[in-house]
Amino acid sequence: YIGILFSIIGTALRVIALAFTIIIIAGICIYVKVLPIFTEVREEVFDKMVNLDEDDFTMKED
After folding, report:
1. HSE on the CB side for 39, CA within 13 Å?
2. Residue 15: its pLDDT value, please?
């Protein structure tokens, strides 16, 4: 029975390791894909914030 138990535990550990590896690879791919978009949006927002003046903070009527 101990051999079967170790076999099941070993298989479970292999499945967990494979899933973890796939998750890491997917995360890296998403990071590489999203980073340029995030950087561009951050720069646009920064430019808008830098160019704000006092008139941009006036209350608008309903």
Report:
1. 6
2. 98
Q: CA-CA distance, 30 to 28, in Å (whole number)?
A: 5
- Give Cα separations from 59 to 35, 36, 46 (angstroms): 36, 35, 23
pLDDT averaged over every residue in the chain: 91
Of residues 50 and 10, the one with the higher pLDDT is 10
What is the rounded CA–CA span in Å between residue 51 and residue 55?
A: 11
pTM over 0.85: no
**How far is CA 56 from each of CA 4, 10, 51, rounded to the nearest angstrom?**
71, 63, 10
Residue 14's Cα: distance from chain center in Å? Answer: 25
